[in-house]
Specification:
The chain is α+β, with helices and mostly antiparallel strands. It is 25% helix and 29% strand. The chain has four helices and eleven strands; from the N terminus they run E-E-E-H-E-H-E-E-E-E-E-H-E-E-H. A hairpin with a 4-residue loop joins strand 1 and strand 2.
Amino acid sequence: MAEGNGLLNRRSGTNRYRGFESLPLRTQKPRVPYAGLFSSMPDVRTIRTIITNRKALFEYEVLDRFEAGIALMGTEVKSLRAGKVNLADSYAMFPDRKSDDLYLVGLHISPYDFGQRENHEPLRRRKLLLKHHELRRMREGIEEKGLTVVPLSIYFSGPYVKIELGLVRGKKLYDKRAATKDRELKREMKRVKSEE
């Protein structure tokens, strides 16, 4: 290594600058693969249920369940955190045959109390975020089998709002009666068991 262009003497491990001959070379720390900013956070998200559609579970037979994201405004999320939502007459639909967008219609999210001019419309259509193969399965169920897509629950999965959708078929009256009878029998057995 030439005297003028080399800064380090690799054999002796000292700097070549005058006056710094006694200082050793700085050793590099072994590289650790980047674990990410949130490496200490657990992979499992906490789930906090906002509302459950119990009427849909009584009136419909759930054939398949899907988890979907939903496109919301900021004031809608704040109203959801306060629990001001109604799922009673809501359902999901494709706007036309060619579109792959699924929208939630009839979901009532009350306006945020402190949202001034930035507030949202309570009954606007909200876009649902699903994977393409899930959308295809839903479209087949709706068009070929005559099924309906109904929201079963809304919940927070970590910081995100998620909706559990059900591909459902309407129950007959005798199915509803049988479900009520089974529920009352279970309740009676539980009461008798707790008395013993």
